[in-house]
Design brief:
Rossmann fold; 3 domains; 44% helix; 18 helices; alpha/beta; Arc Repressor Mutant, subunit A
Length: 406
């Protein structure tokens, strides 16, 4: 836990270090050498023992169980994504983590028709024995969770809620009853420390877990700047199926799913479409192969930078790094809509503005943007997600991106 919570060590770096050193203790002992070879001004500060113990006690107080990468309860599909959380907390029925899951996400300001269709999909999927994963947000998410619990039973599936804040923090507040039901009848999980209030920057990270748990993700109503489209993009990058529910071209909430269908997503007009596709995916050899596991055997500390694994660790640090200044600047906020609060996520850092200045209203290939900006591909991808959430850029077919005209 100390290694995973250390400043600028993210999920990718954590796994690289465990692969190389075998134990977290040896990885921690090697940190001075790693810091000495790391380029740039980013600092790595090891999480303190007192704050780690305080996190453990907070988890015990809310009866949250830590599920660590490599544990039997850790979901196999989630373990396959590159940036799977080192550990997360869970409250409720942990058996649901081992069942085949399908994500259902969509607009917070959803229409009655959209919520009704989400409930229908959720009910039929859970009745067929599958688990519905969502984010416990207003609108589509809440409708999917509620319908799943109505038909959940011994011979059916269930539902898992992935939270943006701590596993014990209810957001939005009006979902207190839904949260209580999820803790009793379903499962609630979060990679954040207990007690942490949700912030805008947490939601894209949360979305990768929703898609990472799922064989496929269904998008039901989503505006052009909706965070649900980020979940769909993560699903595509993770090799999962993306389903989109079509809607009227005059309804802004249908613009997201309609564009996904235009770009190759599976048109979803019934649960049968999802069930047929997921049942085929369950037979996929890639998804059914043995999951990655650490050797658990202590490894010798590498000498200098000669080890190829050492280079991988240094590269992963660049990918995972979050500056300490950004962390200190974060303040808990009330979130009404992900798109409306996303401006608080964007910090006026030099690289973000540099990238934005290179864009115009004419779509530009992301590969060309990477070459022109001279920034790492992973960093460009992260900045574009942040800018998209802030409503400053939009995606186009063919992996192109442009500014949104004001």
């Amino acid at each position: 836990m100390r290694l995973a919570r250390s400043t600028n060590i993210g999920p990718v770096s954590f796994r690289k270090m465990l692969d190389q050193f075998g134990t977290a203790r040896l990885a921690i002992e090697a940190l001075p050498d790693i810091v000495g070879q790391a380029k740039g001004s980013r600092k790595i500060e090891l999480a303190g023992r007192e704050e780690t113990i305080a996190e453990i006690e907070a988890a015990k107080a809310c009866k949250a169980k830590p599920v660590i990468f490599g544990d039997p309860e850790y979901p196999e599909l989630l373990a396959r994504i590159d940036d799977a959380p080192a550990y997360f907390y869970a409250i409720g029925n942990l058996e649901l983590l081992g069942k085949t899951a399908v994500g259902i996400v969509g607009a917070r300001n959803a229409s009655a028709t959209g919520c009704g269709f989400a409930r229908k999909l959720s009910h039929e999927l859970v009745s067929a024995g599958y688990v519905v994963v969502s984010g416990m947000a207003r609108g589509i998410d809440g409708a999917a969770h509620a319908a799943a619990m109505q038909c959940a039973g011994k011979d059916t599936g269930g539902t898992i809620a992935v939270l943006g804040g701590g596993v014990d923090v209810v957001y939005p507040r009006e979902h207190q009853d839904l949260y209580s039901q999820l803790c009793e009848q379903g499962c609630v999980i979060s990679e954040m420390p207990p007690g942490l209030k949700p912030q805008a920057r947490h939601f894209p990270r949360r979305n990768r877990i929703i898609s990472g748990l799922s064989y496929g993700v269904i998008i039901v109503e989503a505006g052009r700047n909706s965070g649900s489209l980020i979940t769909a993009r993560f699903a595509g990058e993770q090799g999962r199926d993306v389903f989109a529910v079509p809607g009227s071209p005059t309804d802004p909430r249908a613009s997201g799913p309609n564009s996904l269908i235009r770009d190759g997503a599976i048109l979803c007009d019934s649960a049968d479409v999802v069930l047929d596709t997921i049942r085929q995916a369950e037979q996929n050899n890639y998804l059914s192969e043995e999951i990655h596991a650490f050797t658990r055997e202590p490894s010798a500390k590498p000498n200098g930078s000669s080890s190829p694994r050492y280079a991988e660790i240094l590269s992963s640090l660049e990918r995972d790094a979050i500056s300490e200044d950004e962390k200190k600047a974060e303040q808990p906020i009330e979130i009404n809509e992900l798109s409306s609060c996303a401006d608080t996520e964007i910090n006026p850092i030099e690289d973000t503005e540099k990238l934005f200045d290179l864009l115009s209203s004419s779509p530009l290939l992301v590969d060309e943007l990477i070459r022109t900006s001279d920034l790492p591909a992973e960093q460009v991808s992260t900045i574009l997600i942040e800018l998209e959430l802030a409503g400053r850029v939009e995606r186009h077919p063919g992996n192109r991106v442009s500014r949104i005209a004001k």
